[in-house]
Amino acid sequence: MPRLLILLLMLCAFVVPVSAQTRPAQVGDPPVLSRIEVTPPNAFGLVTLSGSAGAVFPNAYVAVRNLFSGVTVYTRAGITGGFTAQVEGTVETPYWISPAEIETPRDARGLPGSLPGGPGAILMPNTAGVNAAPDAVIAIALDGSVSDWARYPDSMLIETESRRILALRNSESLYIAIDGADSLPRDAQIEIELIIDSIVYALRFDPRANAPASISRLNPNQRELGTAPVSAVRESAVEARIPLRFTDRADAVQLTAVRWLNAEGAAQIEDAAASPIPVVDERDGIVRTDSRLSPAAPAFAIGGAAALAEERLTWIGSGRFSSVEANPGETWSVEIDVALTGFDLPADARIVSEMVFLPVAQVEPDGEIAEAVSGETTNNGWSDRLTAGGLPIDGQASAVAFAHAEAQASAIVRREDDTLIPLDFSAAIPRRLPAGLYVPALRSQMQWSGGALRWDQPDTALLTRLPVVVNVGGVETARLPMALFIDDASDGSRGILPGEDAARSALSNRVRTNSPTLILPPYTNTAPRRPILYALEPYLPNVLVNRFDVSAAPFIPFELPGGRLMGRVRDPDGRIDDLGAAPFLQNQLSTGEYDESALFGSAAPVDTYRLTTLEPRFNEYSFDRYGEYVITLDAEIGDVWGNTYSGGGEYHVLVAELLDLTPGVLSGAPFSVGDVFNPGLRLAPAFPADVRVTIRVYPLDGSPVIEQMLTGQADRSGVFLPGEMPLIFQKPGEYVIDYEARYMAADGSLWAASLRSVGVVAARESALQAMGRRGVDRVDDLSTAFEPAWFDLARYAEIGAFDDEDAMLTYPYHSGDVAWVDDGASGDLRPALSLFDGGGAYAAMLRSQGASLALTEDPAQIARGIARQEMPVAPEDSAIYVSAVRPNVTVRQFISQGAGVGLAGLETAWNNDDPLNRQIGAGIDGALPDDLIFLFGGVVTRPAEDEPAASGYAAAAVVIDPADDLGERVYPPGRGRDGGGDGGALLTFNDLDYDAVLVPTSLQPGDVLDTGAPFLFAGQLAPTLPMQVRVTYTKPSGVTVTVEGTANAFGAFYDATHLQVADESGVWSAQVEIIYQRRTSAGVVAAPGLSGGIAGIAEGRFSFYVLPTDSEPLPWNSALTDSVIAIGLPYNFNFTLPPGWTDIRATFTMTTPGYVLQAEPLRVSGRSFSYQYIAPALGRDISILERDARTSGSWVSDVRTLTFVATGTDETGSPAIRARTFTLLHDRLVTYR
């Protein structure tokens, strides 16, 4: 009753028109579903979707997809925005409608998954109770009993003392029953002789075997006609149904004889007759003699498809179920009549199905309301399972086994245009099932003597979710995760949940760990800059599958229009903007981007379901001030079954311009106990921002959290070096590091950065070691008997007899090794971790408990893993941390829990064209040749009978040109001097070969410091080994200082005791040497060992500059400090020194994180010098740089820092130095000093 009262109040409060949008539809608007109608199917099974004027924007190209079958059609709207489309389906089918500005190429049509264009919307029928009255069917169930034949008294054709023979037919099939079959030979075949329109036929079949009947024509022109499927069963009676498709017509059908044949085919018993078989005006259909459901049971419609090699299987189902409300221990039933087309089932096929309950929300033992639960098909983009640090654990399974069903061959009805299959499930709801809301879901398989087929879905990871929500235990309302801004990627972060949900759920896009602060830029990156319009409407990440390659109907059939949204916004000055209340009119999904993968890639969540009011005050909101905003939303919505849902709360966002932040230790890098944490960072643009770094370590032994906060200000190069003693990791555990930076520019604009880094702190000594994977991942999911740790892919594929184009590299097996992976969409890499057990206890646990840990369906796989020291991670309270990063861009970041639970259904691989959520500097072409990707990871295990353990992993990947002579490969880094194979130089950049490189994360070439500023050299090494680093500083006076140290076990170099002070103004130099003569995965590296330096610098020497604190910046030709430039055209930097300057020398350095792009002197003319920046030319000359000059945005190309320095003698005759640093965020040029 309370739920009904809420619904009535909602209806009374919002009796409003269902089309709130009053302005004409325009590009970027979703279809207005209230203006679209669906008519019943015509004789060809096609429904017509008719959109009236304003349904979509004018002249839109419209894609319409049947979400059951996946069939998609394309049409075009008229000038008014009206359109018409015909597609296979019914009025009970959900349709995804997506308008686009451009026409979809014909070779791209019909692809599964995300539709082109958008935003789109799903037109949902009210599936509750929609099933129409079924066709009249012959009410005979093939169950070996003739009791149901009493309904057809005319069917009695032959009666003897021991048996009766009954028969009838319709236009499709012949039905025959032999009562008294117990008196007949058990091993005999049956032959039925018929006269059909004067032609004599014989049909022979074995009633005990699910096999086709052989058909022959006896007269005239005797010959064999082949076979026909027959459904037969033998109990106390023999019953059979034989389709009449072997004859063109069947106007008159007469039964003349029934014979029982022995093994030689001779008749043992014959019953003769000369009786016409009565005709019944009823169709073949599914008959249930023992249905548990009443005719008034609630009904629904469902459907699906499976893509086969040469045909497309589609199906629709009409279902009924016991009740919307149920209690634990009660019997609950569902019956589905499936009509399948596009596949000819073998005669002996049977259908085996299982049904599970997928939790929508559950009431915790000490809870008061049902909280959302993530699970199979609902977990892409969020999780309700969190680590101790509040981080989402991806890929969780939560399905509750419910019932099993089988449809034997005799129950399958083969008709001319389809095949009917009964799916009947009935079981007691588990007594321990928590109160909550549940969606029944099924997976089903055809099985026959020659094979098997998963037929209900095109992807084995998917479940067929019924459009039914069962309320178990009388739940009043359920709280759903309602996020904002999921489609508004902010330097890789996507979306935010309200603070009220922070303790129980979190978002995960798997590309980048969401930052602790969501930063929203207020203006576009165009000239002129325009306010960005944001939607303050809730995204529900648990409603769709959110996959680029698969689409499905919504998880919850919401009642729309319905519900309501209330909102208000508090700006940085404390002023309140009350948005009022509005009803939800429909759903919306996808962005206005033609191809969602151009925004988020093909593996991250896309097409997240959003509830929309179509009200501009909610979906076109602009932030007109810099600073923190608090958005308060209160949302309620119901479903078609009467359940109610709520969500919302306070959402805190920061409106600011985005800074690019590179942490002193790269995001997600593992540590070992005893390592010193490098709390530094670099910012671009190089502002002296206020910085806060907070580190929390959650020890595995359960002791209190270890926390340290460091604050301070970055220097004029944007480098932050705190003065406090940094943290030393003292216990194994899991860490969370939050970085925050803020800078208020002179023009009043606020700049900000926020980054969260998560990973493991490993024990110095542990029996368990994190490893990658041997061999490759195969597209066909088949394992390869030969799975080496080191290989070149082409040769490996030849030996393993597989196509190298169907193989994907994984994390190298050995930490410290290197993978070379192709550029482009073909350059795939999948993160995967396993365990090496040096003590044997973990392997013993797997042997004894592996079957119960749900690690794999193949027990032999566990044995192979143990034998190869490539053991799966047991899911029990484990955590697998993955962080693949470029120096300032994350590639993949997520946490999973064990190999068995893992990430089923969620793709984690990337290719090198991935846009990476359009992070700053990600690049419109993704990673490019010579880009470095650090492959970090860690494993935390908590075995029930042993101490918890943490182990770290670090390797490197180098992107290569697909034409590279050595091709894709995995090798140890020793160039053959360690006893392993020679994989070639780690990197060849700007014609320089490097066996090792160091990515500087503190001092870097071209930096400008103030006199008295502290500095040190630190960074991340590739290969990820404990290399020795020596740095020699030369001051302007010629005095030298040398420091040296060793990187940690994972290649991170930092030593707080190396801190220097810039105590002389002028030009300083640093000589960096990298040396390694220790062990790799293959052996000890022979002399002279490995060596290297900073990519782009010959011989490891670079300059940096120290200026007097009060020095003026280098004057240049523009007074602009923040401007958008035409990046496709040459851009001139012109500089003129003050009068009186002589002996002028000018230098120029251009860097991007990890690389020196250019470092050269500039020609001086008088007191002036200049530099012409030509982005397309740089893209042609430097492998890691993009060439695109047409697109705008900080994500389009690598962040570039340009430093100009002039030295000379000023008008007083004193040595003088001036500098100016620019940051180029593709086409946005920013300078501070």
How is the topology of this model organized?
Layout: H1 2-13, E1 36-39, E2 46-51, E3 61-66, E4 72-76, E5 83-88, E6 95-100, E7 121-123, E8 156-159, E9 164-169, E10 173-179, E11 189-196, E12 199-205, E13 213-219, E14 223-228, E15 231-234, E16 237-243, E17 253-261, E18 267-276, E19 299-307, E20 312-321, E21 325-326, E22 331-341, E23 350-362, E24 370-372, E25 382-383, E26 400-407, E27 413-414, E28 419-428, E29 436-448, E30 451-454, E31 464-465, E32 470-472, E33 478-479, E34 506-507, E35 518-520, E36 539-540, E37 562-570, E38 576-584, E39 586-588, H2 597-600, E40 609-612, H3 616-619, E41 627-638, E42 644-655, E43 657-658, E44 660-663, E45 671-672, E46 681-684, E47 690-699, E48 706-713, E49 719-720, E50 733-744, E51 750-762, E52 768-771, E53 777-778, E54 791-792, H4 793-800, E55 807-810, E56 818-822, E57 828-830, E58 834-837, H5 841-849, H6 859-867, E59 879-886, E60 889-896, E61 910-911, E62 932-941, E63 949-960, E64 969-971, E65 987-989, E66 992-994, E67 996-1000, E68 1008-1010, E69 1014-1015, E70 1019-1022, E71 1028-1034, E72 1040-1046, E73 1052-1053, E74 1060-1061, ...
Parallel strand pairs: 21-32, 24-33, 33-42, 35-42, 43-51, 45-51, 55-57, 56-63, 67-76, 68-77
Antiparallel strand pairs: 1-2, 2-5, 3-4, 3-6, 6-7, 8-9, 9-10, 10-16, 11-12, 11-17, 12-13, 13-14, 15-16, 17-18, 19-20, 20-22, 22-28, 23-24, 23-26, 23-29, 25-34, 27-28, 29-30, 29-31, 29-32, 36-40, 37-38, 37-41, 39-40, 41-42, 44-46, 46-49, 47-48, 47-50, 50-51, 52-58, 53-55, 54-64, 56-64, 57-61, ...
